[in-house]
Amino acid sequence: MSDGLILLFSVLVFPGGLFALALGLLIKGVDRRVAARLQRRVGPPLLQPVFDLIKLSRKETMIPAQSSAAIFRWAPLAGFSCMVLAAAMIPINGVYRPSPELGDLLTLFYLLAVPAVVLMLAGSASGSPFGAIGFSREMSIMLAYEGPVLLALLSVAIRVGVGEGHLISLSLTEIVQYQRVHGPFILDPWMWPAMLTFLCFFPANLGVLPFDIPEAETEVLEGPLLEYSGPSLGLFKMMSAVKCVVVLGLGITLFLPNGPDGVLGLLLFAVKCTVLAVLGVTVVRTGMGRMRIDQAFRFFLKWPLALGIASLAIMLARS
């Protein structure tokens, strides 16, 4: 098989594409099921996210008369496509090494910002005032969490780069290999500030409580997604599922990539993603209420930013 076909397979089938979508939908189902149990409800079936997509695929996409039709129609497809590409960049220890042609840690950082930008475009293109409110909220919270997580990513890159004999390493494969030899960063106290910064980042990036402010159902009626229906809304749901795998997989790559080779390594990766989602998303969102946008903004510019600066300062001092 040629390099081009292998690259296409990794983007469309494994670990991007079909695999990332299936794992993301499974994690979404586990999240809803566990959240229901924590709230003493029966909860939906485990495959409810799949049933929702099937239902949406059979409905019509209604385009508001006051909307910008081209942006409204193509925004969800652009977001989903970028997340499929990002999923192909996540290494799975002992199973998959991404091609350098796909990009590095910095490329993945920029790709993770695409869903938020797409939601802002969708909200502004819909012509709905709720979409406009969701746009402003999404932009505010994005500006708040992007800085701290960039500092955490740079801390990991500097740690691996110095350990390998150069200033910085942006290769995701090299980050995994370094921890395979020297042990996972989750066991290194010097890396805990960076890890805590990332733990604060992924609920906000995934748009779940207490950071689901741009789409707050009780306030702005799903905000940017209010006017979406049918397959277009389904694409947003698929984008969210794949993004879940990308963000969780990135956390595993940065701090706990170790595991066996082969099928067991793949199963362990899926279990890690699911456990991290339950502990870092499900438990948090069932135990906390939604923050106001000003509270969330101050939170990220206070604690995660301080942790990110501390982690970068530690790595620079140790280098």
Automatic annotation (TrEMBL):
It is a multi-pass membrane protein. It holds the Pfam family NADHdh. The chain crosses the membrane at residues 6-27, 74-96, 108-131, 143-162, 190-213, 234-256, 262-284, 296-317. Keywords: Membrane, Transmembrane, Transmembrane helix. It is found in: Membrane. GO terms for cellular component: plasma membrane. The keyword Cell membrane does not apply. The keyword DNA-binding does not apply. InterPro entries: ComplexI_Subunit1, NADH_UbQ_OxRdtase_su1/FPO, NADH_UbQ_OxRdtase_su1_CS. It comes from the Bacteria. This is Hydrogenase.
